[in-house]
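Task card 7
Instruction: Convert sequence to structure tokens.
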Amino acid sequence: MTALIRKVLAEKPGEFDPRKYLGPAREELIKMVKHKNEKVLGSARKA
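Output:
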């Protein structure tokens, strides 16, 4: 999540609007959690 925030701020340093960088960062975080649940932990849809 912080990597995407740093990327956006590095590309557009004058733009410090949280709505611009938190959206993409949040989407990447969701993808990572889903991947870990399905592939790493193997616990997806087993609750």
